[in-house]
Amino acid sequence: MDIRQLKYFLAVAEEGQITKAAKRLHITQPPLSQQMQLLEKELGTQLIERGNRDIRLTEAGHALRNRAEQMVNLMELTIGELQQITDGTHGVLTIGTIPSVNALLFEHIHQFSKQHPHVTFQLWHRETYSILDLVNTGAVDLGIVRLPIDLSIYDFILLPEQRMGAIGKSVWFDDKTSQTINLHELKGKPLMLHKRDTPVILDHCHQTGFDPQVFCTSDDIMPLLYWARSGIAIALIPDSAQNLLSSSSLIFKEISSPVIKINSALLWRKNRPLSSVAINFISMFK
Fold first, then answer.
1. Using CA atoms, how far apart are residues 225 and 247, in angstroms rounded to an integer?
2. CA dist 38 to 18, 53, 64, Å?
3. What is the pLDDT of residues 92-131, one digit of tens each?
4. What's the pTM value of the predicted model, to 2 decimals?
5. C-alpha closest to that of 274 among 135, 159, 147, 149
6. Domain 3-86, CATH number (from 3.40.30.10, 3.30.360.10, 1.25.40.20, 1.10.10.10)
7. Which CATH topology does 162-261 take?
8. Which run of H or E residues covers position 217?
9. Per-residue model confidence (pLDDT) at position 77
């Protein structure tokens, strides 16, 4: 018994005539009658009682009709679901991401979910090298990381460039109105740095002519924002991270002289098959 035989049987049961069922199925009557006989022989029971023109179902036929409807519907539903997964319209997308690009990521997720409302997401917030571990082991489909890293084993897309800025209470800033700040204006003030950005910031400070007063370093950007809100020091963060913590008491000023650029990338392992959902998501960044 296969799905085709069940569809033939349902057509006969619904039409009440072999002739009408054959016409509906676009086949001739003899092959359809033969299929019904083979089905009865295989199941070892009579399914239909044949009259001069019409047929009626036996008790076994009624029972099979109920089951056949369920099996055919389930088969068609399964085929549809698999096709949707293949098309990338259904499924789960797992992404490992650094917190500082949340605004950019959420913008793309929001846009993607409008086009693919049946796709769900799992997000892992980690620092760059932890995300690379997740990508390498296949725990996540895609990773968003801070550069520079060795990209030789990955395919990747560079994300929009970010610029470093200073965020803190207004008391730390001499000019309360300007939206930018020169790096040398931070000399002598307690600074909080993300560990990943520390070497770049220290290098720029030394080139500017001073040793920064580093109050704290962290591998998570959120504590820096919380401490900045408390007024204890100034946090240096990428501009994309300034709205991670909603607070009217914080002022963000982009560092304009010198400009400190932060680069990041969306990446995945080379030569590893990607789901259709992941492929569709990547296409939004190209």
1. 10
2. 15, 20, 15
3. 899 999 877 877 788 889 999 998 888 899 999 888 999 9
4. 0.62
5. 135
6. 1.10.10.10
7. D-Maltodextrin-Binding Protein; domain 2 (3.40.190)
8. strand 213-218
9. 67
